[in-house]
Amino acid sequence: MLSDDVKKIFNDKFGYDSGRTFFSPGRINLIGEYTDFNGGHVFPCAISMGIYGAYGARDDNKVRVFSQNVADQGIIEFSLDDLAYSKADGWASYPKGMIAQIIDHGHQLTHGFDLAVDGNLPDAAGLSSSACIELLTAEIVNDVFDFDIDEVDLVKYGQLVENKYLGLQTGIMDQFAIGMGKANQAILLDTNTLDYDYVPVEMGDRVVVIMNTKKHRELQDSKYNERRAECEEA
């Protein structure tokens, strides 16, 4: 199981056994592409593919993260005392940005931690691996430090990571579908008001096919912000 794999990865990289494991799902959108940042309706659902995280507490202010999906980047380290964005952090900008948002909203982390992640969610393939990492980090921090932050607020923090920390003007659908997703349910979400309803997904003998075209999708390097600006102008 992937949860066992990520525990072994944690031990191999950090030299001790992790205390706990967590899971965050990816998402697909059934109806409503590119309407979320225009305040429209979307119809996403969480999927069983996702990212597992193994967590271990530290007794200092360091945070060390490792992703098996981008193992060549090695262990990335930063301090809770300096959470400013740095392009050199690569994928670690997502957990780092989420920690920064949680702190900015009045919650103080009393110690650092080590985190190893692994999963079966293809990176940059349109299944929201970035939002998945954001919400995985949010759930870990919220649970471990007993912050009791409302799930919708964690979802909003995830969007702020993209909008304010990374400068990517994405909508809220990805984080909402991941943070609020339920088994065998899709979410009819009004992205303008955040009113939502769960709708049973009863497929019968039908399936949803997800095709990985191997086309790398990096929104930070795309014209996403330009397209959004054009929509707002229109």
Topology diagram in text:
Elements: H1 2-14, E1 20-29, E2 41-42, E3 44-57, E4 62-67, E5 76-79, H2 93-104, E6 113-119, H3 129-144, H4 151-165, H5 173-180, E7 185-190, E8 196-200, H6 224-233
Parallel strand pairs: 4-6
Antiparallel strand pairs: 1-3, 2-7, 3-6, 4-5, 7-8
Helix pairs in contact: 2-3, 2-4, 3-4, 3-5, 4-5
Provide an overview of this structure.
The protein has 234 residues and is α+β, with helices and mostly antiparallel strands. It has one domain (2-233): Ribosomal Protein S5, domain 2. Helix content is 32%, strand content 23%. It has helices at 2-14, 93-104, 129-144, 151-165, 173-180, 224-233, and strands at 20-29, 41-42, 44-57, 62-67, 76-79, 113-119, 185-190, 196-200. Strand 7 (185-190) and strand 8 (196-200) form a beta hairpin. The chain is globular, with a radius of gyration of 17 Å. Residues 94-182 form the GHMP kinase N-terminal domain.
Question: Which regions have little confidence, pLDDT < 50, spanning 5+ residues?
Answer: none
* Count of beta strands: 8
**Helix coverage percent:** 25-40%
Strand content: 15-25%
List keywords for this structure.
alpha+beta, five-stranded mixed sheet, three-stranded antiparallel sheet, 6 helices, 23% strand
Summarize the structure.
This protein has 234 residues and is an alpha+beta fold.
